[in-house]
Amino acid sequence: MIDIRFGPQVCGDLSASAGREWLVTDGRGGYAMGTVAGLRTRRYHGLLVVAGETPASRKVGLASLDPAVTLPSGRQVRLGAHEWSSGVVDPRGFELLERFDLADGLPRWRWRIGEVVIEREIAMAYGRSCVAVVHRLVSGGPVRLDLAAACTWRDAHGERRADGPAPRLEPAAGGAVVDGAFRLAGPDWTPEGQWWHGVRHREEAARGLHPDEDLWYAGRFCGALDEPGATVTVLAWADDLAEEPPPATAVVEAARRRHRAVVAAAKPEDAVEATLALAADAFVVGTATGPDVVAGYPWFGAWSRDTMISYEGLFLCTGRADEGRELLRAYAGTLSAGMLANTADTGRVEHNTVDGTLWFLHAVNRHVTVTGDTDLGDELLPALHGVVEAHVAGTRYGIGVDPADGLLTQGGPPDVALTWMDARVYGVPVTPRTGKPVEVNALWINGLAGLAELTELAGRDAGALWALHSRATASFRDRFPAPAGWLHDVLDAPAPAYPLGGAPHHDDDLLRPNQLLAWSLPYAPLEPDEATLRRVAEALVTPLGPRSLAPDSPGFVGRHRGGPAERDSAYHQGTVWPWLTGPLLDAYRRAGLPTDDLLVGLEGHLAEVGLGSVSETADGAAPHTATGCPFQAWSVAELLRARRARR
């Protein structure tokens, strides 16, 4: 894997070290997450964040475990870091960090206090909501190590305050149970029980959200580090509180072995692929209904569109085809009126995308093509034919094939946005894209051809599918090229002066990256034209991927910043989306254009924000600072898939 390590120049600079985040996951949607500085900058940061019935319904338990070292002289040195509502940062343990490493995907800190050097490592037990924190004396000593446990038990999206009831502590062997929800265990536990008021999360302030919360100082552990190699360890776990996990050092070693096995199973070509393979592992989770995909950490759960876009990269490029097969079968069971369920983070099941189902057709075809698993293709064939039949007949939200040209159109009420550009502000879609979106029709044509291929592999006649495909392809080639020199983004869209569903219609030629799918998919409707691709790339491509709108277009927003309404307004109006690098590279390759230089920025990004991973979004304007989730499934998956396609 790539070498991710930082010395005192980064670790000791709060703006640099607090902007770099690490993540370890439990394989169920829970995680431990924080910053190189040790400063909690988000309400979502914590050492034990527990997934609920769905991966998105998480709760924060153990927020921090603050070390304090008592030296032989009797002087105590605090190694933690907190920012308070006053703006003061105290303590400032990051100033004593001499190094931070991400080793085998596990974060490791090294503090130096004169000749005393102490390391900390953090890992989670796979398949269980359990975190292990190991402290080791590297040199110097003897010293005493105190570890202050700051706790809460609240929804990951909210805060808990001292004006409500304090967390309930019950004694347990080696520590305590907090609110009956999670347990702490370590050496020489001393209960304390007081509120720490006004802990500030600077990233929430930057996102226009309430930045402060109160934490409950539950108690402290204490242990002696008498000689180099000595350890002081703490475990925290949820679920079955009576079942004690293995020793913390064993949890760390098991996590390291598993991470190495995950990388080996992916058969990476180089260090970047190895890093991406391990990053991909964080998003594949086990649930009560089987494998699923977390769209992004720290706040997303499972979303079918993200899952299907990510499918090839997360499963087929990492040696997880068996898990992928199980996932595709389960998702097929959610089809209704020809539409794939889009499981929202609220836990409700909704059928509200025009493209998620088409990405599902693509994922199934890629699975069969890459693995040769024709049995799965045969099994899902009736369901896939049902998708096409429902779209031809017409289904929810005005989604259906236009008999006039064979292209797929979508309407729906004015408060819905059905494509991946689905941001809404005060209930109004920013980019409704009503009509015939370019990528939706590229996916429709791709899906028809892929399904026809699966049908013929099963020994059945695919003539009707090929007829639909031929008509849609001919209409696509005739209608989508725009006089401006690129492709229309939406055909037959309501004119701006008319409400959605009104008339007359117009063809929207705003320069967006959605058209890349018209050249990049396996059964793309168009062969890429070098001049057109270069024109699109000149306007859209940045070091972290394509912008969602060209800078000289009306409505372009260069900064994805501010409160929720401001950020959602910019989300698809110029913001950079790294996942689109996959379609960009595919289109370039099909045009015979060089691609290696398109990856340099993203590969460098692996050590910049979400360490070892790829962010959800970035500003459309330079320097293209990362925004959104620092760990995003389709960003990682598409970069891995696109790199693998070079082979």
TrEMBL record:
Annotated transmembrane regions: none
Coiled-coil regions, chain positions: none
Domain Glycogen debranching enzyme C-terminal: 279-641
InterPro entries registered for this protein in UniProt: 6-hairpin_glycosidase_sf, 6hp_glycosidase-like_sf, AGL/Gdb1, GDE_C, Glycogen_debranch_N
Glycogen debranching enzyme bacterial and archaeal type N-terminal domain boundaries: 20-225
Listed name of the protein: Amylo-alpha-1,6-glucosidase
